[in-house]
């Protein structure tokens, strides 16, 4: 190939002329990434509120998923089955996020820290400050005796017991998420905690309506300001 003046042009050299430009772009991109990671908040430590929240909420969610599977297989009520499916899918996905955070932060999924130790500071009270909550336990969790009762229940009795236990369970989840909002400034953790507060508060109202339809009442609330 030649130009209009008849001077030959080596086309093989054209791509090589772009390599220095690409190298400069790569260096600039790398520099931007370094600045981004250097300026964001430090990685949470093993005893941080973020790590404690992720670990404890993952366990909390696991029980909610188990309870929802139990009632899903016991009821033919469409709205209740839809609710149980929503809890199973949503909280299973959130558990995956919690575990992903711990892996990203280079932390173990388990800890030697006491349950809910992260919640004792910054929120005005720890888990033991809520009604019906024993020190060293996660708020809203069903006891093994209650879980056995749910497994053994049938029909309307199973529906009512599930709704009562899950309302209290959601109240505990809301309390834990609200505590995290008072302790963390990490955007990704705060965003999910706020999503938990909003989503589970809405589901509490829905479940109270389901209970009223069945002529039953929720268990005593563990929240300072119960959801109406």
Could you walk me through the main structural features you see in this protein, from its secondary elements to its overall organization?
- It contains six helices and no strands.
- With 228 residues, it is mainly alpha-helical.
- The longest helix has 27 residues, at 13-39.
- The termini are far apart.
Give the termini distance in whole angstroms. 81 Å
The helix tally amounts to 6
Quick one: how many beta strands?
0
> Mind describing the biggest β-sheet?
none
Radius of gyration: 26 Å
Alpha-beta classification:
mainly alpha
How would you concisely characterize the structure shown here?
With about 230 residues, the chain is mainly α. It has helices at about 15-40, 50-70, 80-105, 145-150, 155-180, 185-215.
Question: Which terms summarize this structure?
Answer:
single chain; 228 residues; mainly alpha; 62% helix; elongated
Summarize the topology:
Blueprint: H1 13-39, H2 49-72, H3 78-104, H4 144-152, H5 155-181, H6 187-213
Helix pairs in contact: 2-3, 2-5, 4-5, 5-6
